[in-house]
Write a structure and sequence with these properties.
The structure is a single chain. By secondary structure, the chain is α/β, with parallel strands linked by helices. It folds into two domains: 5-179, Flavin prenyltransferase-like (Rossmann fold, 3-Layer(aba) Sandwich); 188-407, Rossmann fold. It is 34% helix and 22% strand. The chain has helices spanning 16-28, 47-54, 65-70, 73-78, 90-98, 104-111, 124-128, 130-141, 167-179, 223-234, 262-272, 315-320, 339-350, 390-407, and strands spanning 5-10, 32-37, 82-88, 116-120, 145-146, 150-153, 159-163, 198-203, 208-209, 215-216, 238-243, 255-258, 277-280, 287-289, 309-311, 328-335, 354-359, 371-372, 374-378, 381-384, 388-389. The strands form six sheets. The protein has an eight-stranded mixed beta sheet with strand order 12-11-8-13-16-17-19-20, with helices on both faces. Helix 1 packs parallel to helix 2 (47-54), helix 1 packs across helix 9 and helix 5 crosses helix 8 (130-141). It binds flavin mononucleotide. The site of flavin mononucleotide has 15 residues, from helix 5.
Amino acid sequence: MTGKRILLIVGGGIAAYKSLDLVRRLRERGLNVRVVLTEAGAQFVTPLSLASLSGQEVHQELFSLTAEARMGHIELSRDADLVVIAPATADLLAKAAHGHANDLASTLLLATDKRVLAAPSMNLRMWLHPATQRNVATLRGDGMIFVGPGDGAMACGEFGPGRMSEPLEIVAAVEAALAGDTVIPLPMAQPPVLAGLRVIVTSGPTHEPIDPVRYIANRSSGKQGHAIAQAAANAGASVVLVSGPVSVPDPAGVQTVHVETARQMLEAVEAALPADIFIGAAAVADWRVGAALVEKLKKGASGPPTLGLVENPDILATVASHARRPRLVVGFAAETEKVIDHAQAKLARKKCDLIVANDVSPATGVMGGDANTVHLVSKGGVETWPTLPKAEVAQRLIAELAALMGEGGA
Ligand SMILES: Cc1cc2nc3c(=O)[nH]c(=O)nc-3n(C[C@H](O)[C@H](O)[C@H](O)COP(=O)(O)O)c2cc1C
């Protein structure tokens, strides 16, 4: 984390005073913070305070010959690992959602090639207004990450959602975002090999309830499945991602449906059919508790409870034998032993076209990690790829699937 660069945009909201503390907290963690202050933001905090706390010149003007000569706006937008907007005003969100570029902050947001994390702050009516909610939904779809807003008493005297998250909550969100890949590839950098095709991807774990507060889960992070959805969208496909509970952000330009259980995941996948390609990368729980309790299980004299497990629906097998079966059905096999043998058996049993098999033994660091070593198992044989970043596995897989679509099968 130390040494990573943050470009902090401070908008014109009453919570701008908290951004002074945010700069301090980020720097305490060894992060380099460069600040951009909007014209309205300068009504709330001074460039002098921000410059003193960040230890760097504060950028305010788009049309500044001196600033442009020292560091141009495009360079400024790229010379960061993460862009943070705090406070993110209704106005900044609206501009970003619609691609405006009429001041330094909005131009940077349009020109950046990095993830943007926004901490909204506004009156509750401004936050709840359908226009703001529409803009937030658009920005989420474009890959913007949000922290807050929280509920609470507002400077305007009202009470409700719209309060900017506290600096330490924003710092935690910054750290989480920096733990992943923050570079957004140029959409056209990948050839549009899936243009005109519809792709459904599942990703992440499922949570199967035991009672209202407990659930059965697994260690899947969603990183590989989300990277595949992103790569498919970058390749021109129209993508529906059905995701279990994960902490990775929704991929840019992808319609993401959030679910918790295997049954909800199957329902969302069936609702998204028809499609040309289905990629089941989610780690779907094989079993659920047959009769999840409505009230919390209590510790009692009768000792530990018995969880009566029943089998979950098999999403991959269902899609592979569906009346509206996609042309290509791809499954993932996460194994801890005999990886290829199990994958070959799964290919035949589930009637899919391709299995992407990976070893998820703890020593491999695949579950939750950023790299993966996969074997592509099809009727034609087994192809083993070297250990690669998950984003690269995703891009290669998409190229492979595009080739198979061209050949008319697996
Ligand atoms: C006293 C005062 C407080 C304001 N607080 C907020 C706020 O918390 N959130 C917000 O979205 N707008 C707030 N506004 C309105 C913004 O300052 C205004 O929309 C401005 O154009 C935002 O510019 P910017 O998005 O370029 O920073 C406030 C305005 C005033 C006068």
